[in-house]
Design a protein that fits this description.
- It contains nine helices and 17 strands.
- The protein is an alpha+beta fold.
- It has two domains: about 230 residues, Zn peptidases (Aminopeptidase, 3-Layer(aba) Sandwich), CATH 3.40.630; about 90 residues, Elongation Factor Tu (Ef-tu), domain 3, CATH 2.40.30.
- Strand 4 and strand 5 form a beta hairpin.
- The longest helix is centred in the last third of the chain and has 17 residues.
- It starts with a helix and ends in a 9-residue tail after the last helix.
- GO terms for molecular function: aminopeptidase activity; metal ion binding.
- Belongs to the peptidase M42 family.
């Protein structure tokens, strides 16, 4: 299931294919499923109390929208792109992509000129997304006929086991979506009513979670997302944030939120009681759906679990299988203990 989730395409605002997979997975694990006007999917397990918890993981991946079809009659056609989410254009060169039109999926490549044909200034100048062009290997007339402005583009990459890691595109946030779906299957007869929320448009401003925070209005919200693991040679130890293989990450803060102290302390206490590996996350920048719930419908206690992720926002994102398992174990143990009696007020 994790491979299917990561390899399936779904950019912000167009999460349709992922939404179908999520609804199918929810069918046997929750009491009811609904989809809202933005496309968020909520699978609810009814509890024995009035206390409600929301758990959120986002469905969208970073990608592109076609902004222009470029070329001349009798020559090759190319696509210019507008980014959907935060891309570093340096990782886009010489990559395969898929162009999603209304009628079909087309393979394409983002080319890169041979380095020996570039002058020193060109080689040293960082590219911009606006400089990128998709080559479909087709004449301009055919490209113009088959592709429209507004069509979508995603990276084309398989998901592979590399040693103890799973690597591919869209681990952000499909691996947490997978962990959330696994947790929903593991929960049975909870005290709290639990809303498992597969959210949309996180990569362009936490938009789905902000709407959902109003509609669901939980007593407690828990977000799930990947986090930076800079545990590679070019970074000093103090820049790692998290390390692969050392367990799930209990978030203390990121660029959008400071999690509720009593919530993250409860996560820590349960992990220690259950012997679940964990690490603490202080992420200097970046945001998660945690803030989306905290900013709506009044003050709410919030927490977050993160899965460490190397090479974030590239096509070779990598997560460790033990960290994924620890995240499922800790989230399940936490939710099974939620009955409304824990005091998260400051």
């Amino acid at each position: 299931m994790a491979v299917e989730l990561t390899e399936t395409s779904g950019v912000p605002g167009y999460e349709d294919r992922i939404r179908e997979l999520v609804r199918a997975e929810f069918a046997d694990s929750v009491d009811r499923v609904r989809t809202d006007a933005m496309g968020n999917v909520v699978g609810t397990i009814d509890g024995s109390t009035d206390y409600e918890v929301a758990v959120a993981a986002h469905m969208d991946e970073i990608g592109f929208m076609v902004s222009h079809v470029e070329g001349d009659e009798g020559e090759s056609g190319f696509l210019k792109l507008d980014a959907l989410g935060g891309w570093d254009a340096r990782v886009l060169k010489a990559q395969r992509v898929t162009v999603h039109t209304e009628d079909e999926d087309l393979p394409g490549v983002i080319g890169s000129p041979p380095p020996h044909t570039m002058d020193p200034e060109e080689r040293e100048t960082p590219p911009d997304v606006e400089d990128v062009a998709v080559d479909l290997g087709l004449p301009y007339e055919e490209v113009e006929d088959r592709v429209s402005v507004g069509d979508l583009v995603t990276m084309d990459q398989s998901t592979e086991l590399v040693g103890e890691t799973l690597t591919g595109k869209a681990m952000d946030d499909r691996i947490c979506l997978y962990a959330m779906l696994q947790t929903a299957q593991a929960i049975d007869n909870p005290d709290a009513t639990i809303h498992f929320c597969a959210t949309v448009q996180e990569e362009v401003g936490l938009r789905g979670a902000r709407a959902l925070g109003v509609d669901v209005d939980p007593d407690l919200a828990i977000a799930m997302d990947v986090t930076v693991a800079n545990d590679v040679p070019e970074f000093d130890e103090g820049e790692h944030v998290t390390r692969l293989g050392e367990g799930t990450a209990i978030k203390l803060k990121d660029g959008s939120v400071i999690t509720s102290p009593k919530v993250h302390r409860r996560f820590k206490a349960i992990a220690e009681d259950e012997g679940i590996d964990y690490q603490l996350e202080v992420l200097p920048a970046g945001g998660t759906d945690t803030a989306g719930f905290q900013h709506t419908h009044g003050a709410k206690p919030v927490g977050a679990l993160s899965i460490p992720n190397r090479y974030m926002h590239t096509v070779t994102e990598a997560v460790h299988r033990d960290d994924v398992a620890a995240t499922v174990d800790l989230l399940t143990a936490f939710l099974e203990r939620e009955d409304g009696t824990a005091d998260y007020m400051l």
